[in-house]
From TrEMBL:
Organism name: Aneurinibacillus danicus
Stretches assigned to the DUF6444 domain: 20-84
Bias kind Basic residues: ranges: 61-72
Residue stretches spanning the membrane: none
Protein name, UniProt field: DUF6444 domain-containing protein
Length: 144
């Protein structure tokens, strides 16, 4: 309803205003009932109604862990000896990654001395390959 329509009702007198407010209140009550019905419908799922689990759409419950609670913090525990791969003296491949240009302004680093470098070793497993053995059994014509 626009402002000019409300003013037109106002100029018709108090009875017209009361009628307008009553119709608006009735409409508000109807809409509130619809909202309440939709909210109640949204709260229902397969756990609290006769609805099948396939109708549980967006509000599925979070899965609960079957592991019992302990007092330990997550991660490695104190006193646990860890195992890690040690650096090898002679790696199979050496790859040098050098920075040639500034990532911000694009200027060249060709004449700038190297201040530091980082080393790391990556351990990769070779690709798995199927090994096929052709088995030939020689049979003689001799019988026992």
């Amino acid at each position: 309803m626009k402002r000019k329509d409300i003013l037109a009702v106002y100029h018709k007198g108090p009875q017209a205003m009361v009628q307008l407010v009553e119709s608006l209140c009735s409409r508000i009550e109807t809409l509130e009932a619809q909202v309440q019905q939709l909210e109640n419908q949204d709260k229902k799922n397969s756990k609290n109604s006769h609805k099948p689990p396939s109708t549980d759409e967006f509000h599925k419950p979070k899965p609960k862990s079957l592991r019992p609670k302990t007092n330990r913090k997550p991660g490695g525990q104190l006193g646990h000896v860890g195992h890690t791969l040690q650096r090898v003296e002679h790696p199979d491949h050496i790859v040098i990654h050098s920075v040639t240009d500034c990532s911000s302004c694009g200027s060249s680093f060709a004449h700038v001395p190297v201040l530091r470098h980082e080393k790391r070793q990556v351990f990769d497993l070779p690709p798995i390959q199927i090994e096929v053995t052709h088995d030939v059994r020689l049979k003689s014509g001799h019988t026992l």
